[in-house]
Amino acid sequence: xxxxxxxxxxxxxxxxxxxxxxxxxxxxxxxxxxxxxxxxxxxxxxxxxxxxxxxxxxxxxxxxxxxxxxxxxxxxxxxxxxxxxxxxxxxxxxxxxxxxxxxxxxxxxxxxxxxxxxxxxxxxxxxxxxxxxxxxxxxxxxxxxxxxxxxxxxxxxxxxxxxxxxxxxxxxxxxxxxxxxxxxxxxxxxxxxxxxxxxxxxxxxxxxxxxxxxxxxxxxxxxxxxxxxxxxxxxxxxxxxxxxxxxxxxxxxxxxxxxxxxxxxxxxxxxxxxxxxxxxxxxxxxxxxxxxxxxxxxxxxxxxxxxxxxxxxxxxxxxxxxxxxxxxxxxxxxxxxxxxxxxxxxxxxxxxxxxxxxxxxxxxxxxxxxxxxxxxxxxxxxxxxxxxxxxxxxxxxxxxxxxxxxxxxxxxxxxxxxxxxxxxxxx
Length: 427
Ligand code: IMP
Fold this sequence. Notes:
Elements: E1 3-8, H1 16-23, E2 29-32, E3 41-45, E4 48-52, E5 65-68, E6 73-74, H2 76-88, E7 96-99, E8 103-104, H3 107-120, H4 132-140, H5 153-174, H6 182-196, E9 200-201, H7 203-212, E10 217-220, H8 244-249, E11 258-266, E12 269-271, H9 284-292, E13 305-307, E14 309-310, H10 311-321, E15 325-329, E16 339-348, E17 351-353, H11 360-365, E18 367-374, H12 391-404, E19 408-412, E20 420-422
Helix pairs in contact: 3-4, 5-6
């Protein structure tokens, strides 16, 4: 059986959670491979509506093993809260495992995220404030503490003593704030360790065994391609890679195992936080999309910036990830609009370009060149077959497929699992 990577095409919030939840019915393993609790997946399931930040979206399928891979940074308090909430509402979490190589978010990461943002003043990234950037920075600096370290209190103390001393110097000498207490952090993380211990495993072996049994594995990304630290709108990006290639690094699967890459894209674009967004609508249409689509961050509640579909950005994502198909989500949000626009190029210094520039200063100067299509002005939320969609909706989808050079496998017309049109097979 194959491995399908499910990847965000935009700046996150594309509806990956719903798609993974849907596909998880057929999968035996779902692995989250990047990000941390900066992610927020809203999923409507037979158990009700859930907001997941760390737990993979496959948790609602009773036969599916869920893995938080080594590429994720874990805030233990958030993880414990999430499993408590799932258990209280009848969702079984005994099939959930955490890689012993996943790094932990520590209290100083959260403090430093806020302090660094403040220090950037007008150039703030608009992070989620969850300590994600500082945690990944420590991973690269070899100053991280991993979930596996929680299983040995002597090792935890040894690492924490050295690292906290260094972090306290930064907190007090650079930012002028109070230091953190070694005893308090240590005892808090010992408690977390007790709670997390049953979940911590050498998880990549589990994936290898699943592949040997020919079981379907889903790789679940967090955030979206345009937030990738290398290929996104750097420095207005997140700090771990949400790309398909990172699916291998963040889970322990070898690259030749991925057989399909499914890009998830909204029928329009959104972005939360700072950084350029060429098709942003700062008008009534943008407001209408935001209100109809409830476009407010699951993690921070911030209003999302809304805009027309940017085919230049989406095609760039297709190339970087090698999408074999896309899932187009939230088509229903456009149901009432009389006319729709798709960005097919950028006007830059008098020329028209058809590529996504690598630096934000250039992207900021880009003006969208639009193509206009008629809207369908009819409800789609009850449509279940592609042929039953209004003609204009089918034309819109066909144009997106053509512009991004990728077939649509799925079309989502609502939050519930059944509000999905299976257009072409993924496998
Ligand atoms: P961080 O990941 O918290 O460091 O935030 C860096 C940037 O990524 C900010 O612009 C955030 O708004 C954005 N970001 C991080 N996670 C998500 C997400 O799950 N959806 C959308 N934007 C996100």
